[in-house]
Amino acid sequence: MSEGAPSERAEPVRPDTPRHVAIIMDGNGRWAAARGLPRGEGHRRGVEALRRVVRASHELGIAYLTIFSFSSENWSRPASEIGDLFGLLRRFIRNDLASLHRDGVRVRVIGEREGLDADIRNLLAEAEDLTRANTKLTLVVAFNYGSRQEIARAARRLAVEVSEGRRTADSINENSLAQYLDAPDIPDPDLIIRTSGEQRLSNFLMWQAAYSELVFVPIHWPDFDRAALEGAIAEYARRERRFGGLAAKTAS
Q1: What residues are labeled active site?
Q2: Which residue stretches of the chain are H helix?
Q3: Separation CA 193–CA 173 (nearest Å)
Q4: Could you give the count of Cα atoms lying within 13 Å of 169 in the half-sphere of its Cβ?
Q5: For residue 157, which of 45, 171, 191, 198 sits 20 to 30 Å off, Cα-Cα?
Q6: For residue 53, which of 2, 101, 127 has the smallest C-alpha distance?
Q7: pLDDT tens digits for 58-70?
């Protein structure tokens, strides 16, 4: 992160600041193409944007920040681009982990680790182990992640329990399935932001997003900053979250 980050969690800028913000960081390649730069430079600038947003989330009093860093579908990209993305992940952890730890950020990783290179698995585990006791901000990194795959993994775990006689099929409900998701202790996101103007979830937190507010912003991820984050939070604050119930005025 950066110098000058506060040593204690800041108070939220407003009482309706979301507790959990999730971000689909989209548009690195288009940002680069618009400037005649290689896609790798867009990804590098995207890491700089991530540093800004982690810092801003801490200062705004957000408790959980989830980032979609590498999807299970990204394997279809050219091998050179995948190599660039993995290289950035390696550098981010090696260069930023000490700073994140010093600032009280806890790192959690969701997604499938089977099949990843050993050094990547070790870096992810190192980030989690070093920061496990931190409490000021939880940074959830969705890496090699797909929501359908996450739900399928949870269903398989329940199926094993049934086949082994430790559970009956009738006992399976949404609560039991949720307990087998990748991070069942983390609250569902209040706000999901996607940059670059695309308006879809793209297999990201589909179970957890059942009642999330969705905000789509036109700017590409490398240009995202604290002002853009605050703008998305302001849009979130203008909405009335009913969770399937009636609006307050109607109910009254």
Answers
A1: 26, 74
A2: 28-34, 39-60, 79-102, 118-131, 147-163, 174-178, 226-238, 248-251
A3: 29
A4: 2
A5: 191
A6: 2
A7: 999 999 999 998 7
At a CB cut-off of 8 Å and minimum separation 6, what does 110 contact? 66, 140, 141, 142, 143, 145, 150, 182, 183
Residue 6 lies in a domain: no
Assign residue 36 the CATH number of its domain: 3.40.1180.10
Cα–Cα distance for residue pair 87/82, rounded to 1 Å: 8
- Residue 124, SS3 per DSSP: helix
CA torsion sign for 154, 191, 8, 90 is positive
Is 177 among the domain residues?
no
> Quick one: which of 126, 135, 116 has its CA closest to 64?
135
Identity at 207, one-letter amino acid code: W
Domain assignment of residue 123, given as a range: 20-149+188-238
Name the CA dihedral angle for 37, 41, 42, 44, rounded to a multiple of 10 degrees.
Answer: -170
d(CA 182, CA 197): 28
Q: Is residue 243 domain-resident? A: no
Q: What is the pLDDT of residue 2?
A: 41
Give the bridge partners for 28, in sequence order: none
Q: Any residues with CB less than 8 A from the CB of 232 and at least 6 apart, and which?
A: 21, 191, 193, 215, 217
185-201 tens-digit pLDDT: 999 999 999 999 999 99
Taking the C-alpha atoms of residue 141 and residue 91, their distance in angstroms, rounded to an integer, is 15
